[in-house]
Amino acid sequence: MLLTRNVADLKKGERAVIKSFSDRDMSLKLLEMGCLPGCEVRLDAIAPFGDPICVRVGGCYCLSLRRNEAASIVVE
Amino acid sequence: MKPAPRKIALIGNPNSGKSTLFNQLTGLRQKTGNFPGVTVEKKSGTLRLPFPAHSSASDETLVVAEAILIDLPGIYSIYPKSRDEQVAMDILANPQHPDHPDAVVVVADASNLQRNLLLFTQIADLGLPTVLALNMLDVAESMKLKVNAVQLAMQLQVPVIKINARSGDGVDLLREAIQRVAVTERLVPAYFLDPAEKQPEIIEEVKTRYQLENNYLALQYLCQHDSFTFLNQGQREQLDGLITKYAFDKTDFLANETITRYERLRPLVQKTVTSQGDSEQPAWTRRLDKILLHPVWGYVAFLMVLLVIFQAVFAWAEYPMDWIDQATANAIQWTKTTLPQGVLNDLLTDGLMAGIGGVIIFIPQIAFLFGLVGLLEESGYMARVMVIMDKLMRKFGLNGRSVVPLISGVACAVPAIMTTRSINNPYERLLTILVTPLMSCSARLPIYTILIALVVPDDTVLGILNLQGLVLLGLYLLGLIGALGSAWLFSIFVPRREPSYFILEMPTYKWPRWSHLGITMYDSVKSFVLEAGKIIVAISIVLWVLASYGPGDSMEQAEAQTMKEMSDAPEQVREAAVASAQLETSYAGRFGKFIEPAIAPLGYDWKIGIALITSFAAREVFVGTMSTIYSIGGEASEDAVTIRQRLEKERNPQTGGPMYTPAVSFSLLMFYVFAMMCMSTLAIVYRETHGWKWPMVQLVYTMVLAYVSAWATFQLLS
User: Fold this and answer.
1) What does the entry list as the binding residues for Mg(2+) (chain B) (predicted)?
2) What angle do CA B298, B304, B305 make, to 5 degrees?
C-alpha cells in the first residue's frame, strides 16, 4: 500500500519528515517560512472545529495553517 | 570618512522582536506617518548614535549624532506576499527613494536562527551595509540552544550584536555597531548566493540596461518589477520581454533560491548554534496552548478576555473621566464668572472650552483600550485568537486574520482598515473593510456611556458584574453580530475570485513590556487629541456660532416675542424660555427642524437632529453638540451641570415627561451601533479601495441598517 501521505493526514502528536510540495505557489510561502524538504514536522494542536492545525517545524517553532494548505505538504 | 548616517532601516521577521527594538532605540522620539506615495503606515523615530568628536580634540566626551530609524514591515523574505510588504523592497531597491537607508539593522530571532538568516542573507546580497542584531537569546536558552555570536560574525562577515530588545541589554553596543557600519567604507563581500551562477545572461542584460552593479538587485528587477513604483510601464514591459526571451521561470527560480540559501545556511548554523538536549518551545507556551486552543476553554478564555476589556474600560476609566469632567466644569465656571460677560466670553466657554472638554474626556478610555489591545498583541495571544477564529470567520467569508482589524475596530475604524492590508486575499480584505466600521469604535463609547448612564441603573448583578457594563458589552456584541452578518450577506452577493489562504507563525507567549505598552497608549492618545481633537473643537465652535445666530433679526424677534408671552413668569423660567426659543430660530435649529420629519419615527426631535448631522463629521461630536445645545437651550447654565444631568432635565414638549426615555435612548444607541457616522472612515475606505463605489455601498447599507433598527427599537419600547 503506497499512498502519498501529507501533513493534513497526521494524527495529533504524530511526527513525519517533509518530502515535497504538491502546490507550486504554496510551496514558495512554506519554504520561506522554514518548511524544508527533510525537515521534521509534528502535528501539535488542532483548533476547535478541526481547522486550522498547528504544526511544529524542525522542532523549533510552530506554524498554523489550514487543512487544505497542510495537504500540499507531502511527507514520507 | 562619510558624513554621519542619516537613515537606518530596521528589518526582520514577524515576531522577531523588531518593534520592541524600535521602541527601545527611539523611545518616545517617534512619529507615525505614511510612506510617500503609498498608504502604508510608516513608523520612524530619532536614533541617537555615539559619534566620536574628532574635530574638537579639547575634550574627550562623546558627541551624540542623530539618525532617522525607519521601521519596515515584518517580512520573511524580500519577496512580498501582501501589499504591506511591497513597501520594504520598494525602498531597499531604489537608491533614489527618500527613505532608502544608509545602513540596515536585521533583527533575528536566535531561537530560530536558520529561518531568520534567510532574510539576512537576502538583504546582505543586495549590497546594503548591514548589522545583525541577535535577539531572543533567552528564548533560545530556554530551548537549550547556545549561539556563538563571534563565530556567526566571522561566518557572515558582518557585525553581530547580542541584544535583548525587551530589557535593553546590548542596545548600546548595537548603536556603536550601526555607527561603525554606516561610517566606514565597506568592502562588498562575496554574494551569499549569486543569481548569475544559474542565469548569467539574463542578469547581465538587466544590469547593462539599468546600469546596475548588483546581480541580486538585477534579479529583483526581473521578479518584482510590477510592484516597483520607481519603474515605468515601458520598463516593466521591457523586463517582461527579457523574461520571455530567456524563458525565465520565476517560481522555479525562487523556490530554488530559497532551498539553496537554506542549504548553505545549515552548516553555518550548525557551527554556531549548539543544542544541549531536545529543543522545544518553552513548556508554558505548550501548556497555555492546551487551554487557549481548546475547543471549549479556548472560546471561554477569549470571551473572558473580551469581558475583562469592557469591564475595565467602563469601570476603571470612570474615575479619571469623572475627574476630568469635574475639572472642565470648574474651569468653564471660573472663566465665565471671572472674565467680563459678552459674546467673546460665551464663545470661549460654551464654544471652545466645552469643545476641548469633550475631547480630553475620552483620553482615559482610549488609553485603556489601546493598551489592552496592545497587551493581547504583545503577549502572543492575538495569534491564538486568529487560529481559533479562522474556521468561524471563513463561514462569513472572512479570514482568521480579519480578527485583528475587527478587534482594532473597537478602538478606531481608520487604523483598523489600514491593518487589513495584511490580509493577502483581496476579496477577504474587501469584506473586512466593508464590515469593520460596524464594530463599535471608541468614538461611540462616549455616546454609549452617556445614554446608558441615563437609562440603565448603576446596579450590580450576579455579585460582581456592573449592569451598565453588561449593557455596554451587549452593544459591542451587537456591532460584532452586525459585522459578521453583513460579511455573510456580502459573501453571497459579491463573487469570490481567488482562493483564500492562512499561514501564520505562532509566537511563544511573552510577558508584555510595560514601557512598550506605555508608548502605544501615549501614541494613540496623542494622535487622537491632535487629529480627531482638532476636528471636534472646530466643529464645536462652528456649531456654537450656528446655534447662536439666526437669519436676519429673527433672534431678537424670538427674544421679544417670548418676553412678551412670559412677562409674568419668574425671571429664571423666562430666560430659559428665551434661550430655547432662540435656539429654535437659529441656523442650527432650522436645520434640525428641516430633518425632523425624517427622524420623528425614530423618536428624535430637532435637537437630536442637529447632533445627528454634526456627528457625521465624527461620532464623538454628538456629545459636544449635545453639551452646546443644552448649555444654550437649557436653564441656568451658570450651574455648570455636567452633560448627563442636563439630559436628565430635558423635557419632552409634547408629553411633559423626560425627553430621554428608555425608548428614545435605546433607539439612539441602536442608531449609533450601526450608522457609519464618520467622514474619516469613508475617506480611508475610498483610499484603500481606490474609488467611491465601496465607500458609497458601505454608507448606504449601514444607514439603512441603522435607521431600520432604531425605528424598530423605538416602536417596540414606546
Assistant:
1) 23, 26-27
2) 90
